[in-house]
Amino acid sequence: MTRVWRSTVVRHLSCAALGLLALYLLSISLDPFGDLQLAQICYTTIATAGLTVLSGLSGQISLGHGAFVAVGAYTTALLLAHQQWPLALVLVAATVLTALLGALVGVAAARLRGPYLAGATLALAVGLPSLADYHGLRDALGGANGLVVTPPPPPLSLGEAFPVERWHAWIGALCLVLVLFLLANLVRSPLGRNMRLVREDEDAAALSGVPVARTQILAFWVSAGCAGLAGALFATVNNLASPGAFGLTLSLSLLTAAVLGGLGSLAGAVYGAVLVTLLPTWSNDLAQAADLPEEIYANVPLVLYGVVLIVVILLFPGGLQSGVRWAGRTVRARLHPR
């Protein structure tokens, strides 16, 4: 078992190194807007990966992950404004604080099932961001306008003209590779095995000696931590933490990305996050090219979301990752026929 575990870690380290190199080469080939989109893809993938572990691996439904992203973003905004901590320490603090909140939510979630769990997390998604406009917290959290975030500039060693968008893309890429490395090892660990057992049959898992409630709480803890880190990167990249950015739409977008990519698949989380991030830009370009009326123009992204989701579900019910696996099997069968 130890030898297999070491082999898995080494393989994941190799993939992480290659992924980091690929993201670096991609970032230096992009213009500032492209680097901004790359940073957005990175933090969206981090949140989606955490959600796919929660829903795909442990079988718990969450419609409220936008609230955890908000906690990470506001933690970052407050720490940078009042404590002037180094950015790395701020990212860690936002992750830890949100993970602790996720553990508390997980305690309650472990007692709920199905639509009751979905309803509880939906209430979290709607209620938590609106606290920023509560009269007792309005001064501290900026009310409906939110807080302006001023992250540290790129190191002077990179040059005065170094684009801040590329610096943010590098930070996001490093965080993304680290998160995927840790989650990939978690999936292969005894905890990941317990999560799969709980997802398949809680009663059978309990009879097998699996601590069901603790496993579910740990899944929420991990997933919320990922969302908190994503929120910290969101605030850093967009220079803003406002309640309007973390509404129900964000939670549904993250769930859409997880479903599109394939629940339970970390590679699928990447595919889904890329689509969710780039589809609005593509749809806007399409609407402008077609010279559509304004009332139609505003609805093009929603229509495109729906079309893509329906097509993916019809062709690949298991998400895009299942399609990639099918394509791989087809190619291998043609190259090595029996």
Rg over CA atoms, rounded to whole Å, is: 20 Å
Structural class: mainly alpha
- H-E string: HHHHHHEHHHHEHHHHH
Largest sheet: 2 strands, antiparallel
How many distinct folded domains? 1
Helix content: over 70%
Strand share of the residues? Answer: under 5%
Q: How many helices? A: 15
Q: N- to C-terminal separation?
A: 33 Å
Largest sheet: spatial strand order:
1-2
Count all strands and give the number.
2
Based on Cα principal axes, name the global outline: globular
- Poorly predicted sequence stretches spanning 5 or more consecutive residues: none
Global mean pLDDT: 85
Protein name: Branched-chain amino acid transport system permease protein
Main location: membrane
Membrane topology: Multi-pass membrane protein
Transmembrane segments: 12-30, 36-54, 61-81, 87-109, 116-132, 167-187, 217-237, 257-279, 300-320
